[in-house]
Design goal:
Structural class: alpha/beta
Number of domains: 1
CATH architecture: 3-Layer(aba) Sandwich
Largest sheet: 7 strands, parallel
CATH topology: Rossmann fold
CATH superfamily: NAD(P)-binding Rossmann-like Domain
Helix content: 40-55%
CATH class: Alpha Beta
Strand content: 5-15%
Number of strands: 7
Strand order of the largest sheet: 3-2-1-4-5-6-7
Shape: globular
């Protein structure tokens, strides 16, 4: 059944691929981005099936207007795909606080703002699906990605809380965790800085890897977009969905290592409880 989607970060990369796949599947799409100039070709090809909306996801009033625009144009709203985001690479020490704030503002608060704008409508309908784009960096903290991972871990926590609150209301939430895809995310969308040479073995190595990896990522954006189409059609979608072999393999390895570490320190973890008193023996009858 055709749906109405609102997609953020639609101008390029995974966002644009998702919009194209959604339209091909027969959905109606409000495609949003800060700069919608690059989306006009989609509007020319698909006519009234798509509406363009210039949106800065950090602007609360603009997010509310985007939700109203989708409902006004298409009569309903079934799916919100929070895809907008970016991430620079630098060590925590070398990253200015202004860059920390800017990345967290877009990647985390942008997701929160757009989600809250659509939530009352979904609650009233007792239906709707939030698709929240996180990242492998939302499960694994890679060197050089301090602000980005801080934001994406925030998206994970926020969205998991949201899922527990809204599930009884008929609203679905899925956190999408992509690995490396052949988009411009690792190219023009990212500033790479090795910074202090003391971080050569960590941040410097990550920067070198990313330069070499760009254009060789295993992920196909068109296949990722098809996975999102399928996800939005599921009656019982997962809370988390990894995208890509590198994402799956990395998350599996990381989660097993985390569990093993927790088990190895279990004795110290349990030592902080109050001493339990033995039960009183039963009095003879």
């Amino acid at each position: 059944m055709a749906q109405v989607w609102l997609v953020t970060g639609s101008s390029r990369g995974l966002g644009r691929a998702i919009v194209e796949a959604g339209l091909a599947a027969g959905n109606k799409v409000l495609a949003t981005a800060r700069d919608i100039e690059s989306l006009h070709d989609l509007s020319e090809r698909h006519g009234d099936q798509i509406k363009l909306f210039a949106l800065d996801v950090t602007d609360e009033s603009a997010a509310a207007s985007a939700v109203k625009a989708a409902i006004g144009a298409f009569g309903s709203l079934e799916v919100v795909i929070n895809n907008a985001g970016y991430g620079n690479l630098s060590s925590v020490e070398d990253t200015p606080m202004s860059d920390f704030r800017a990345q967290i503002e877009t990647n985390l608060f942008g997701t929160i703002i757009v989600t809250k704008a659509a939530l009352p409508y979904f609650r009233q309908r007792k239906a709707g699906h939030f698709v929240q784009f996180s990242s492998m960096g939302g499960r694994i903290g890679p060197p050089g990605r301090g602000p980005y991972s801080a934001a994406k871990w925030g998206v994970e926590g926020f969205s998991e809380v949201l899922s527990r609150e809204v599930a009884p209301l008929g609203i679905k939430v899925t956190i999408v965790e992509p690995g490396g895809f052949r988009t411009d995310f690792a190219g023009s969308s990212t500033k790479l800085s090795e910074g202090n040479p003391d971080y050569d073995s960590t941040v410097g190595a990550t920067a070198k890897f990313q330069r070499d990896y760009n254009g060789k990522q295993p992920g196909d954006p068109k296949k990722a977009a098809q996975a999102i189409v399928r996800l939005t059609q599921e009656q019982k979608p997962p809370l988390r969905l990894l995208l890509g072999s590198d994402a799956y393999n990395g998350a599996e390895k990381n989660d097993l290592a985390r569990l093993e570490e927790a088990r190895s320190w279990k004795e110290l973890s349990l030592s902080t409880d109050f001493e339990s008193k033995p039960p009183h023996p039963e009095r003879p009858k």
